[in-house]
Amino acid sequence: MNGRLEARGVTKVFPGRRGDTVAIEGIDVHADPGEFVCIVGASGCGKSTLLSIFAGLTEPTAGDVMLDGEPIDGPGPDRGLVFQGYSLYPWRSVTQNIAFGLELAGYDKAETRRRIERYLRVMHLEQWAHARPSQLSGGMRQRVAIARSLAPEPQVLLLDEPFGALDAHTKTLMQEFLISVWRETGTTILMVTHDVEEAIFLSQRIYVLSSHPGRVRREIAVPFGAERRPEIRRDESFLDLRDEIRGLLLAETVEV
Question: What are the DSSP E strand ranges found in the chain?
């Protein structure tokens, strides 16, 4: 399984009655196979627009987006997408929600069952297999949404502020859980967030975007290994990196 995701010179312009709006301009970003990359920026910097382009839901005005060197020209099973909202089918059980993408892809019953069982285990959802979304907490619903996206075993998982609606405690637990899932599956992950500490804790590299229009202001390597213990948040190098990125975002706000 490969999974190199790349954008070269990507620009997106939205036409309007009062003139065009340039959401992002000249974006160059990439995520290598098995890498966890975060994109951070203030609201309105085009993070979600860029993710939508990678998902094939939005067409760029200019530039190229590629997966393993092949152009992305629409949605596909090689990319899984998880939004902030859980987007689960309320009439389906946890198992049936996870099975949805497998059904669309036409997997046989044996393979569907194998994958469902695997991701129930990976996401620690076995005891909730027959529950409906209304019976689950917010964190558990998001675990189901991630499991549903991972079940077809995409090359890349795209995450759009997946923990933004969760309370602080649940959000921290989900971040730690996502790290363990990433290590176990080896899936390339590209995630957008406005939470600087979240980006540092999760990712191996961070792209900081400017606003109006969104451009890459800085690419930063995160100097920690794949093991991310909660205590790392108190490490001096973690705090220094947090302050550096916050400073970039603050300077951007002042300049705008």
Answer: 5-14, 21-31, 36-40, 62-67, 70-71, 79-82, 156-160, 188-193, 205-209, 216-221
Structural tokens at position 31: 């995520």
Tens of pLDDT along the chain (256 residues) come to: 678 999 999 999 998 888 888 999 999 999 999 999 999 988 778 889 999 999 999 999 999 999 999 999 999 889 999 887 767 899 999 999 999 888 888 888 999 999 999 989 888 899 999 999 999 988 899 889 988 988 888 999 999 988 887 888 888 888 988 898 898 889 999 999 989 999 999 999 999 999 888 999 999 999 988 778 888 999 999 999 999 999 998 876 545 4
Return the CA Rg of the chain.
Answer: 18
Phi/psi-derived region of residue 46, left when phi > 0, alpha when psi is between -120 and 50, beta in every other case? left
DSSP state of 214: B
Query: What CATH number is given for 1-78+159-256 in this structure?
Result: 3.40.50.300
Strand, helix or coil at 218? strand
Extents of the domains making up the chain: 1-78+159-256, 86-153
pTM: 0.91
